[in-house]
Amino acid sequence: MPVRVVLAEDGVLLREGLAGLLDRFGFEVAATAGDAGGLREAVAAHDPDLVVTDIRMPPGFTDEGLRVAAALRKERPGLAVVALSQYVELSYAADLLDSGDGRRVGYLLKDRIVDVAEFADTLRRVVAGGTVIDPKVVGQLLRRRRDPLERLSPREREVLALIAEGHSNSAIARRLVLTETTVGKHVGAVFAKLDLPPAEDVHRRVLAVLAYLRSQPSWTSAQE
């Protein structure tokens, strides 16, 4: 069965372009919306597997799309959401990850989506339970104050950054040219140093991402 998608984007050309792209890669675009109210109505009417939404939408062009997405995830715990942003906005990424159980969410920067096949694969990973954050957002987080991440070695921080981008242990091993066993040891060390309790591995990976988001002194926005 194809993944059913509701797409929310106020720009007509971008909305239609994304709808066509998703259709080409085997997704079923059940509905599109141009504002936050339309997004909520479309989800209620079509019960999608995935919402792809812009963060800034009419009428205020602040965080309307994000607020509706977070509310929908509270109402529908299994709903996957991928938010698209023009800027690196750390507070928005944190708010999205804090919604629901922190799984089935993605935060991507529009101008860094250059490979449509990779974008489609990212959407499928999120629907399957993954958590994906744009590497540029991860980079900003790692450049800021790291407590409690200061206990992590440089390699462990590198591994944690790749976890935050949604990569599996095997994918991390390929990226860093390490064995999967070695990556597993680094991941275990990250969990231990962040004092994460024994739990399902996927859940602890989400908690690790949230740990360094919450290590920031405040949920202020940052833009580049």
Describe the structure.
The protein has 224 residues and is α/β, with parallel strands linked by helices. It folds into two domains: 3-145, Rossmann fold (3-Layer(aba) Sandwich); 154-221, Arc Repressor Mutant, subunit A (Orthogonal Bundle). Helix content is 50%, strand content 13%. The protein has a six-stranded parallel sheet with strand order 2-1-3-4-5-6, with helices on both faces. Helix 5 links the parallel strand 5 (105-109) and strand 6. The longest helix has 14 residues, at 180-193. The chain starts with a strand and ends in a 10-residue tail after the last helix.
Indicate the multimeric state: single chain
Q: Any idea what the shape is?
A: globular
Taken together, the total number of domains comes to: 2
Largest sheet: 6 strands, parallel
Chain-averaged pLDDT? 82
CATH class of the largest domain: Alpha Beta
Number of strands: 6
Give the amount of beta strand, in percent: 5-15%
Note poorly predicted spans: 216-224
Order of helices and strands: EHEHEHEHEHEHHHHH
Which percent range fits the helix content?
A: 40-55%
CATH architectural arrangement of the largest domain = 3-Layer(aba) Sandwich
Give the end-to-end Cα distance, rounded to a whole number of Å: 39 Å
Task: Please identify which CATH superfamily of the largest domain we are dealing with.
Answer: Response regulator
- Strands across the major sheet, in which order? 2-1-3-4-5-6
What fold name goes in the CATH topology slot of the largest domain? Rossmann fold
Radius of gyration: 17 Å
Structural class comes to: alpha/beta
Protein name: DNA-binding response regulator
Keywords: DNA-binding, Phosphoprotein, Transcription, Transcription regulation
GO molecular function: DNA binding
InterPro entries: CheY-like_superfamily, NreC/VraR/RcsB-like_REC, Sig_transdc_resp-reg_receiver, Tscrpt_reg_LuxR_C, WalR-like, WH-like_DNA-bd_sf
